[in-house]
Design brief:
Length: 153
């Protein structure tokens, strides 16, 4: 259907200076603006304001993740784990995105804990993205096989 997009739009209005810098960087990057902004957001450092509310949001997300993972483990152990391929892909995408974000935040805040962020790992997210694309081709069939083996055990 024309005029319909699968994914929601992310929009923002940068100031004049920020827009000029974005335009210049996009032009020099050799890729289209959409891809440039996406890659810049995904592969750059995360800036987090250390307010109590932000820290609480991270803690709440980690606790929610822990609860869901315990529920999934219980369902797998009982043999009552029924998740469609689409639901599995969505769950995997959401939790990998969350895990990558937490790692980025911790690396960015390493100085607060008198630690040095890992060096030489600048492209680890790009490498992970490539691996995930390769794995997603056959992950559904592997997942089904893993589930049947777990149920047999």
């Amino acid at each position: 259907m024309s005029g319909k997009h699968k994914e929601p739009t992310i929009a923002f209005r940068p100031g004049a200076w920020a827009r000029a810098v974005i335009e210049q960087r996009t032009a020099l990057s050799g890729i289209c603006k959409k891809d440039f902004i996406t890659k810049s957001c995904l592969y750059s450092n995360i800036v987090v304001v250390g307010k109590k509310e932000n820290i609480q949001r991270i803690v709440d997300s980690l606790q929610e993740m822990q609860i869901v993972m315990k529920e999934i483990a219980g369902q797998i152990q009982s043999g009552d784990f029924s998740l469609s391929d689409d639901s599995y892909k969505e769950l995997k995408r959401d939790y990998l995105a969350f895990a990558v974000t937490v790692i980025d935040i911790m690396d960015g805040a390493a100085y607060l804990f008198e630690k040095i962020p890992p060096a030489g790992q600048k492209n680890w997210k790009a490498e992970l993205e490539c691996v995930l694309k390769l794995l997603s081709v056959n992950c559904a069939s592997q997942f089904a096989g893993d589930l049947s083996r777990m149920r047999e055990a």
